[in-house]
Amino acid sequence: MNLDLGGPGAGCSAMRVRRLLAGELSGVEKERTEAHVEGCERCAAVRKAIATERDALRRNVPFPEFAAAVAEKLAHRSQRSFATRWAPLAAAAAVALIAGTLLVRRPVETETVRSKGAASAQLFVQDGKGVHELAAGEPLADGARLLLSLQPSGRKRAAVVLVEPGEASVIYQGPAVNGTLPEAFVWTGRGVATLLVVLSDSAVDATAIRSAADAPRGSDVLTVTLRR
Amino acid sequence: MGGRAGDVAAPGAPMSAGLLAELYETHAAAVYGRCRYLLKDEAEAKDALQDVFVKVLQALPEFRAAASASTWVLRIATHHCLNLLRARKALWREQLRAAQADRRQETEGPDRRELVRVLLAAAPEEAQEVAVLYFVDELTQAEIALEVGRSLPTVRKRLREFLACAREALGVELEGADL
Fold first, then answer.
1. Do B115 and B65 reside in the same domain of the chain?
2. Closest CA to A180 of A102, A100, A123, A98
3. Rg (CA), chain B
4. Residue pair B120/B149 in contact by the 8 Å Cβ criterion
């Protein structure tokens, strides 16, 4: 017996119908999709399913409940990871030295996902003694501001995550800027923490990264050890 | 439950109730649907819905830069739910065994989406998201390749892996096995 698990059809795609209803299509693609959906039973079923999803959301998770729950979770995370332990700060220093970083390249999975070369990063420290490069093994002073500078070497996206025992905090996620990140930060923890810098050609979900092994295949991962 | 919509704020990026309301109107139903579909548990789906939007709010630059916000948000939701399912692998495997038993007794065709869901448990991690993008979201292989930043042959390989695992799990031939 043969089973059909589905998949995209000729001109049919559940996601395209979603995008049409969300106002994400324009121009010829919008016109073509509208014309197709009009007379397509399969797409009509998708529209019905989307309407059912919407009804279920409004019935089971009305906006005030949703907003309050999201606000509570955000506040909890902020309190745990940022408000007391991390404080985003204005960019601290324009001058800095090279930090001791270790480059680990994730294995390249296919020939079409190529490494772009030697990506690197520098961690700058601003403390009572001024601005300097973080030296290997150097303990951080209380209140020291940290500013990361990237040399992405052609990589397009970057994620920076601070990993401590039992928790990880997203420091940055966005374009792989060539130079310093928009904000400096302060680490107020004790012991040892690892700053993971992931440079990739595709989008990186920083919230999913807890170790170098979580980085997308083919990406560059740099690690910087922080001590206090 | 503490907090108000007007208080919503991600680290380093102040939020407004207006933004959250807009996200709710445009994307929450799809995310909730995806969480209910994958998790099959109302309480877990509601919790996952909230977690997904916390992630979205903490990654607004990525969200705004995405070629398709709908696809991007649903990928976050899928990834989140698959992680939860992996954490309760035993239950997921049990559902797969139940589906296998049903296959031996059924005379009518099963619900395709439900079958895909339980078959995900049999597939390797790398193939699971690609299978959801193909069989549930109905993206073409080329669209998936663009979305996940992999080559077309890699996407095809992942789908083949999923189908091979599904075929082995159910002991039947599957359409699309010629990928």
1. no
2. A123
3. 18
4. no
Residue A120 has pLDDT above 60, yes or no: yes
User: Is B3 inside a domain boundary?
Assistant: no
Contacts of A23 in chain B (CB under 8 A): 26
Domain that holds residue A184: 89-227
**Does any CB of chain B come closer than 8 Å to the CB of residue A62?**
no
- Residues for chain B: how many in total? 179
| ipTM of the complex in this document | 0.80
Tens digit of each residue's pLDDT (9 = 90 or more) over B58-77: 888 888 888 899 999 999 99
Distance separating alpha carbons of residues A77 and A82, to the nearest angstrom: 7
Alpha carbon distance B16, B26 (integer Å): 16
pTM: 0.59
B72 and B95 in a single domain? The answer is: no
B161 touches chain A (CB under 8 A): no
The region, left, alpha or beta by phi > 0 then psi within -120 to 50, assigned to residue B83 is alpha
Arithmetic mean of pLDDT, A81-98: 33
Residues of chain A neighbouring B83 (CB-CB closer than 8 A) = 208
DSSP letters, A179-213, are: EE-SEEEEB---SEEEEEEEEESS---GGG-SSGG
